[in-house]
Amino acid sequence: MLIFKNNLYAKNEPAGTGYIRSPDPGFEEAFDPAHFLTRVLEEEEETLRFLERQPREYWNQDGLKFFPVSHKAGGFQTLQAILTILKDGHKDRKTWYHMNAYHFGFLHDALSRFTFNYNLDNLEEKNKALPELKGLPLNFNWFVKNYFFGTLFLTSEEEFDRFTAEDKQKKGFTDPCLFAVIHGLAPTREELKLKAANDYPYNIYV
After folding, report:
1. Residue 97: beta bridge partners?
2. What gap in Å lies between CA 127 and CA 78, rounded to an integer?
3. In terms of C-beta density within 10 A (0-12 exposed, 13-18 middle, 19 or more buried), how is residue 26 classed?
4. Inter-residue contact 13 to 107 (CB < 8 Å)
5. What Å distances lie between residue 146 and 17, 68, 71, 135, CA to CA?
6. CA atoms 160, 165, 169, 173: torsion sign
7. Where are the alpha helices (DSSP H) in the chain?
């Protein structure tokens, strides 16, 4: 299971500090975040298969369009590797896994695109994608604020390079992969991996 700011796999567990209630009546009762992630990752398989069929000379243009954050990390093989790793971690219900900026950057791209397309779809298509919502709209920003630890991976290279060491500490640049993600460096084999947690990652007390 993948570790987010709040537990994606237990809706009834007390929400963490700073949790924001959805402004849409009935949404939180109907929304299943784990199923949402499953559908997003399934959609990414189709997206990557589509990109794989395109001529190589269009990869840079298509990569920027479909993966505005994570396209800088590498080509098709890198994105496919990240997707496979995330799917395996999501399906593993015996182990909790920490993600890094490479994983969150990929998820940001995937969730944003899925949400945009879902909200444009007609009711029939929405019900095929997420039947539990019965057509209710998705709120991408709400999901990111409640389930992402932050979006520092969206920082530009220029802004990042202007920060002092003290600035980075204050802003929470603790993920060692952030520099590489922001500067478009390909991940190493170790950086692609999820890190198994030693303990239960959430506070079970209100």
Report:
1. 2, 196
2. 32
3. exposed
4. no
5. 10, 22, 25, 21
6. positive
7. 27-30, 33-52, 59-66, 76-91, 101-120, 123-129, 140-147, 157-162, 165-171, 178-182, 189-192
Tokens of 18: 């700073």
Return the ∠ at Cα 65 (arms to 59 and 66), rounded to 5°: 85
Pairing of strands 97-98, 195-196: antiparallel
Least confident of 113-117, 163-167, 175-179, 181-185: 163-167
**Distances from the Cα of 96 to the Cα of 2, 27, 99, 111, 116, angstroms:** 6, 27, 10, 21, 29
Question: Measured between alpha carbons, how far is 124 from 137 in angstroms, rounded to an integer?
Answer: 13
pTM: 0.92
CB contact at 8 A, 153 and 68: no
Condensed to tens digits (0 to 9), the pLDDT of residues 124-153 reads 999 999 999 999 999 999 999 999 999 999
| pLDDT reported for residue 185 | 93
Q: Are 33 and 41 in contact (CB under 8 A)?
A: no
* Long-range contacts, stretch 4-12, CB < 8 angstroms, 24+ apart: 4/147, 4/148, 4/149, 5/146, 5/147, 5/148, 5/149, 6/146, 6/147, 6/202, 7/202, 8/33, 8/34, 8/37, 8/147, 9/33, 9/34, 9/93
Angstrom distance (rounded) from CA 54 to CA 111:
22
